[in-house]
Amino acid sequence: MVILALRCVVQDHRHRSLLHFVRRPMAGLARQQHPDGSFGTLSTTALAIQALEDSDSGSGSPQHWSPAAARRWLLERQEADGGWADVGRTAAAAAALAPATLAAVRPPHCKDKLLDSRHEPLVLSLIELLAQYLAIHLKPSVLDVAMALATMVISNPLWANVRGLKTFNRPVYRADSNAGEGALKMAYQSGQAANESEARNVSFTYTLWLGTNVTENYTLYMVAPRNISFYHVMQMAAEHDPKFAFEASEWPNGHYVHTLGGHREEPMGYHYWLLYRLPETPDPSSPPGNQLVAPVGVDDLLVEDGEHYLFWYKKL
């Protein structure tokens, strides 16, 4: 990453004097290539490819590495779905294999390279896959998300306007209030489909509170098709986060949820799960009154855009 940053700096004519600070670490990095073409791990190999990219004709000019062998090593580890197992590694591999790397942030002439039509099928397929990975993989780190978005921006400006990411739909965040790293989950759609999708979808939050005094608090920020029942929302949430796993009894009039996140109702102790339908995000310091309990069961409750749904495990 240091080499990538320095390469961006020295391409400005005002900082050509710093070129010698780049050459030595690049040559040292090039000598680290293994006989199989890798530089160790997948992420390290992907970053090394980017750091040494175009070095034969540009700054550094090490002659001790084989870009073809490094890319071949990356491609041999590509999985059946076209990705590399998770958001971080897929973003790193996509950046290394795309025609423009993160080192292309600075050069004023990089636009021509980014729009090279010869690379467009590869770039678009990698970015589409990366967007899907961001949508379905659990708890990518903030760094992984940043790397993924940077890869999208750098790889093709048709997919991301650098000043505002205008061609992407707004992000959907998944936040676990008890996760120290502030885990994010983001789902993006291309601008062409965004308006159609927005008309079909609704955005809302789904929160779990544990305890009358709310000792645990978890929230998902979700997007789902219009006219979907809350029961189906619960199924979606459970697939993405085990904290939202649930059990329900099936009755003629629908499902009765008795367990959420491993916490089962205790009638003897008067502990029950209550579902609230709220106009604002629930605040433990100002808990909702029972008049806001959902008037129907999870099967008949249809989620609405901008609403907030709270399942609270409390003592009655």
TrEMBL record:
InterPro entries: Cobalamin_Transport, Terpenoid_cyclase/PrenylTrfase. This is Uncharacterized protein CG3556. GO terms for molecular function: cobalamin binding. Signal peptide: none annotated. GO terms for cellular component: extracellular space. GO terms for biological process: cobalamin transport.
